């Protein structure tokens, strides 16, 4: 008997050891599985951190490009409008979900009223319940319509604001039209200045011819009386000397005006040369601006894709 008890104890001990061993193996497998899961999660976390750092770097690079291009305010406004539009769309979907929930509730109430109709024999209580439910439903419906109309107005306003933001093609078209208008205005200005200069020159010639005609008429009328006496001849000679001096002064004045005009002409030639070089520089800047506009459009589409 003692040997049998001892054998049973040994057998029980062996079974316990086997159970413990099996449990230990299970725990070891679970530990290995958890360890592999931790390794997988660590690798995924590192990959996510790398993606996050890459995304942050790209966003920073995008912000720097936007700041350099001088369109930060426009992009900020566009981003805010896009975020507002997304928020309103989310609110619209929430409102739709809320409406579905309310419809389900109303359907449940209708089913409940149907059950009341089948189970209730008192017509007065049923009529009162119907009136209350109808009144509450009408109020909820009117409130929902008001909220939906307000949300739709906000969405339409945001879409109009987005449509008001000019695109790259519109900016290029505006720039071309402004350039054409500037060329037309400059041509009209040059033509007007030329007409004024011609008018002033002809007016001055007219005044000189009138003075010359008046002088010749005066000499013709007084010549015979002047040469009849010695004093008359002296006065005539003195008068002619005065006229000659006046003409000489006018000639010097005209010469000075001509020199001033030549100086102005040389200055205008220099300005013209500078304007030609400035036009070339502006053409290069315009080409660079168009390229930057194309980059900005690509960045805008990329930003929209990121926000979406």
Automatic annotation (TrEMBL):
Coiled coil location: 38-91
Pfam families membership: CCDC93_CC
InterPro entries: CCDC93 (IPR039116), CCDC93_CC (IPR019159)
Transmembrane keyword on record: no
Domain CCDC93 coiled-coil: from-to ranges: 3-300
Keywords: Coiled coil
Superkingdom classification of source: Eukaryota
Protein name: CCDC93 coiled-coil domain-containing protein
